[in-house]
Protein backbone atom coordinates (compact mmCIF):
# COMPACT_ATOMS: atom_id res chain seq x y z
CA UNK A 1 0.00 0.00 0.00
CA UNK A 2 1.31 3.48 -0.83
CA UNK A 3 2.70 5.53 2.05
CA UNK A 4 1.45 8.64 0.26
CA UNK A 5 -2.35 8.57 0.61
CA UNK A 6 -4.35 11.31 -1.03
CA UNK A 7 -5.44 13.83 1.57
CA UNK A 8 -7.36 17.05 1.63
CA UNK A 9 -5.71 20.06 3.22
CA UNK A 10 -1.99 20.65 3.69
CA UNK A 11 0.52 20.73 0.86
CA UNK A 12 1.09 17.66 -1.27
CA UNK A 13 4.16 18.45 -3.38
CA UNK A 14 4.00 18.02 -7.12
CA UNK A 15 5.94 14.85 -7.89
CA UNK A 16 7.43 16.58 -10.96
CA UNK A 17 8.75 19.57 -9.00
CA UNK A 18 12.41 19.24 -8.05
CA UNK A 19 13.20 19.70 -4.37
CA UNK A 20 17.00 19.90 -4.39
CA UNK A 21 17.83 22.87 -6.58
CA UNK A 22 19.22 26.35 -6.02
CA UNK A 23 19.81 27.20 -2.37
CA UNK A 24 18.42 23.83 -1.25
CA UNK A 25 20.94 21.99 -3.41
CA UNK A 26 23.67 24.17 -1.91
CA UNK A 27 22.47 23.13 1.55
CA UNK A 28 22.53 19.48 0.49
CA UNK A 29 26.13 19.86 -0.68
CA UNK A 30 27.03 21.44 2.66
CA UNK A 31 25.59 18.38 4.40
CA UNK A 32 27.42 15.96 2.09
CA UNK A 33 30.72 17.76 2.73
CA UNK A 34 30.60 16.66 6.37
CA UNK A 35 31.17 13.04 5.38
CA UNK A 36 34.12 11.24 3.75
CA UNK A 37 33.39 10.53 0.10
CA UNK A 38 33.26 6.78 0.68
CA UNK A 39 30.66 7.19 3.44
CA UNK A 40 28.35 9.90 2.12
CA UNK A 41 25.32 7.65 2.35
CA UNK A 42 25.55 8.44 6.09
CA UNK A 43 24.08 11.83 5.13
CA UNK A 44 20.71 10.23 4.43
CA UNK A 45 19.01 11.35 7.66
CA UNK A 46 20.02 15.04 7.52
CA UNK A 47 19.09 15.11 3.84
CA UNK A 48 15.65 13.76 4.72
CA UNK A 49 15.31 16.51 7.34
CA UNK A 50 16.39 19.06 4.73
CA UNK A 51 13.70 17.89 2.32
CA UNK A 52 11.16 18.02 5.14
CA UNK A 53 12.20 21.58 5.98
CA UNK A 54 11.36 22.61 2.41
CA UNK A 55 8.14 20.67 1.78
CA UNK A 56 6.84 20.12 5.30
CA UNK A 57 7.03 16.40 4.47
CA UNK A 58 9.24 14.00 2.52
CA UNK A 59 7.65 13.48 -0.86
CA UNK A 60 8.32 10.96 -3.59
CA UNK A 61 10.50 13.32 -5.59
CA UNK A 62 12.67 14.10 -2.55
CA UNK A 63 13.24 10.38 -1.95
CA UNK A 64 14.32 9.94 -5.55
CA UNK A 65 16.63 12.96 -5.50
CA UNK A 66 18.28 11.94 -2.23
CA UNK A 67 18.98 8.56 -3.81
CA UNK A 68 20.60 10.35 -6.76
CA UNK A 69 22.76 12.48 -4.48
CA UNK A 70 23.95 9.46 -2.49
CA UNK A 71 24.24 6.97 -5.35
CA UNK A 72 21.68 4.61 -3.83
CA UNK A 73 18.21 3.50 -4.82
CA UNK A 74 14.98 5.29 -3.98
CA UNK A 75 13.90 2.14 -2.15
CA UNK A 76 16.94 2.37 0.15
CA UNK A 77 16.08 5.97 0.99
CA UNK A 78 12.44 5.09 1.56
CA UNK A 79 13.47 2.25 3.88
CA UNK A 80 15.04 4.81 6.23
CA UNK A 81 12.25 7.37 5.85
CA UNK A 82 9.56 4.83 6.69
CA UNK A 83 11.44 3.37 9.66
CA UNK A 84 11.59 6.59 11.69
CA UNK A 85 8.45 8.42 12.77
CA UNK A 86 10.25 11.80 12.69
CA UNK A 87 9.86 11.84 8.92
CA UNK A 88 6.42 12.68 7.60
CA UNK A 89 5.50 11.03 4.31
CA UNK A 90 2.13 12.69 3.84
CA UNK A 91 0.79 16.27 3.98
CA UNK A 92 1.52 17.78 7.36
CA UNK A 93 0.47 20.86 9.28
CA UNK A 94 2.59 23.87 10.13
CA UNK A 95 2.85 22.49 13.68
CA UNK A 96 3.15 18.79 14.51
CA UNK A 97 1.77 17.73 17.89
CA UNK A 98 2.91 14.26 18.94
CA UNK A 99 1.08 12.74 21.91
CA UNK A 100 2.65 9.68 23.52
CA UNK A 101 0.10 6.95 24.24
CA UNK A 102 2.45 4.21 25.41
CA UNK A 103 1.91 2.52 28.78
CA UNK A 104 3.20 5.13 31.25
CA UNK A 105 1.46 7.98 29.43
CA UNK A 106 -1.73 5.99 28.88
CA UNK A 107 -1.95 5.17 32.59
CA UNK A 108 -1.65 8.87 33.38
CA UNK A 109 -4.37 10.07 31.02
CA UNK A 110 -2.89 10.24 27.51
CA UNK A 111 -6.21 9.22 25.93
CA UNK A 112 -7.83 12.36 27.33
CA UNK A 113 -4.85 14.47 26.24
CA UNK A 114 -5.00 13.35 22.61
CA UNK A 115 -8.79 13.76 22.64
CA UNK A 116 -8.28 17.37 23.79
CA UNK A 117 -5.69 17.91 21.05
CA UNK A 118 -8.02 16.63 18.32
CA UNK A 119 -10.97 18.61 19.62
CA UNK A 120 -9.10 21.91 20.01
CA UNK A 121 -7.27 21.58 16.69
CA UNK A 122 -10.52 20.69 14.91
CA UNK A 123 -9.38 17.29 13.67
CA UNK A 124 -11.83 14.43 13.26
CA UNK A 125 -11.10 11.00 14.69
CA UNK A 126 -9.16 8.89 12.23
CA UNK A 127 -7.53 12.00 10.73
CA UNK A 128 -4.29 13.79 11.61
CA UNK A 129 -4.42 17.05 9.66
CA UNK A 130 -6.61 20.04 10.46
CA UNK A 131 -8.66 21.53 7.62
CA UNK A 132 -6.78 24.83 7.87
CA UNK A 133 -3.42 23.06 7.49
CA UNK A 134 -2.16 24.48 10.77
CA UNK A 135 -1.96 21.29 12.85
CA UNK A 136 -1.06 17.66 12.58
CA UNK A 137 -1.92 15.64 15.69
CA UNK A 138 -0.14 12.31 15.76
CA UNK A 139 -0.38 9.45 18.25
CA UNK A 140 3.23 8.53 19.06
CA UNK A 141 4.30 5.13 20.29
CA UNK A 142 6.89 6.46 22.76
CA UNK A 143 8.69 9.74 23.38
CA UNK A 144 11.18 8.24 25.84
CA UNK A 145 10.36 10.46 28.84
CA UNK A 146 8.15 8.15 30.88
CA UNK A 147 8.94 9.96 34.14
CA UNK A 148 7.23 13.06 32.71
CA UNK A 149 4.06 11.32 31.51
CA UNK A 150 1.80 12.28 29.85
CA UNK A 151 4.36 13.56 27.35
CA UNK A 152 3.73 15.72 24.29
CA UNK A 153 6.06 17.01 21.60
CA UNK A 154 5.38 20.14 19.57
CA UNK A 155 7.67 20.45 16.56
CA UNK A 156 9.99 17.90 18.25
CA UNK A 157 10.18 19.88 21.53
CA UNK A 158 9.04 18.15 24.73
CA UNK A 159 6.26 19.30 27.02
CA UNK A 160 6.02 17.40 30.31
CA UNK A 161 3.06 16.12 32.35
CA UNK A 162 0.52 17.62 29.96
CA UNK A 163 -3.07 17.57 31.16
CA UNK A 164 -6.07 17.91 28.81
CA UNK A 165 -6.47 21.52 29.96
CA UNK A 166 -2.82 22.26 29.25
CA UNK A 167 -3.11 20.58 25.84
CA UNK A 168 -5.95 22.94 24.95
CA UNK A 169 -3.84 25.91 26.09
CA UNK A 170 -0.92 24.78 23.90
CA UNK A 171 -3.11 24.47 20.79
CA UNK A 172 -4.77 27.83 21.42
CA UNK A 173 -1.35 29.49 21.83
CA UNK A 174 -0.10 28.01 18.57
CA UNK A 175 -3.26 29.08 16.75
CA UNK A 176 -2.65 32.61 18.00
CA UNK A 177 0.91 32.61 16.67
CA UNK A 178 2.60 32.13 20.05
CA UNK A 179 4.88 29.08 20.24
CA UNK A 180 4.92 27.84 23.86
CA UNK A 181 8.24 27.31 25.61
CA UNK A 182 9.04 23.60 25.96
CA UNK A 183 10.18 21.89 29.14
CA UNK A 184 13.79 21.93 27.95
CA UNK A 185 15.65 23.66 25.17
CA UNK A 186 14.46 26.21 22.62
CA UNK A 187 11.13 26.26 20.83
CA UNK A 188 10.92 26.09 17.04
CA UNK A 189 8.54 28.34 15.15
CA UNK A 190 7.27 25.52 12.96
CA UNK A 191 7.77 21.89 11.99
CA UNK A 192 9.77 23.05 8.96
CA UNK A 193 12.05 25.19 11.14
CA UNK A 194 12.65 22.28 13.50
CA UNK A 195 13.47 20.00 10.57
CA UNK A 196 16.02 22.49 9.24
CA UNK A 197 17.71 22.63 12.64
CA UNK A 198 17.80 18.82 12.79
CA UNK A 199 19.48 18.82 9.37
CA UNK A 200 22.31 20.71 11.10
CA UNK A 201 21.81 23.86 9.04
CA UNK A 202 20.84 26.24 11.82
CA UNK A 203 22.57 26.96 15.09
CA UNK A 204 20.23 25.92 17.89
CA UNK A 205 20.26 28.58 20.60
CA UNK A 206 20.54 27.71 24.26
CA UNK A 207 17.21 27.75 26.06
What does this entry look like structurally?
The chain is an alpha+beta fold. Helices cover 39% and strands 9% of the residues. A 4-stranded mixed sheet has the order 2-1-3-4, with helices on one face. A hairpin with a 2-residue loop joins strand 3 and strand 4 (157-159).
Provide the fold topology.
Blueprint (H helix, E strand, L loop, with lengths): L22 H10 L11 H12 L4 H11 L3 H10 L11 E6 L2 H5 L2 H12 L13 E6 L11 E3 L2 E3 L4 H12 L15 H8 L9
Parallel strand pairs: 1-2
Antiparallel strand pairs: 1-3, 3-4
Helix pairs in contact: 1-2, 2-3, 2-8, 3-4, 6-7
State the low-pLDDT regions, or none.
Answer: 1-13
Please state the second-level CATH architecture of the largest domain: Orthogonal Bundle
Strand order of the largest sheet: 2-1-3-4
Strands, count: 4
Q: Mind telling me the CATH class of the largest domain? A: Mainly Alpha
Q: CATH superfamily membership of the largest domain, which one? A: NADH-quinone oxidoreductase subunit E
Main beta-sheet strand count, sense and barrel state: 4 strands, mixed
Strand content: 5-15%
CATH T-level topology of the largest domain:
Arc Repressor Mutant, subunit A
* Number of contiguous helices: 8
Radius of gyration: 17 Å
Distance between the amino and carboxyl termini: 42 Å
What is the succession of H and E elements?
HHHHEHHEEEHH
Q: Helical residue percent?
A: 25-40%
Amino acid sequence: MSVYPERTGGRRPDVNERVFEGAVLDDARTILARYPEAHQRSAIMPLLYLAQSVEGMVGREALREIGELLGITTAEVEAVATFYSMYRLRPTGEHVVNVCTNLACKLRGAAEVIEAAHETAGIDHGEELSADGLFTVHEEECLGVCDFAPAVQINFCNHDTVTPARMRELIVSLRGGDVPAPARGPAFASFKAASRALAGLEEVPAS
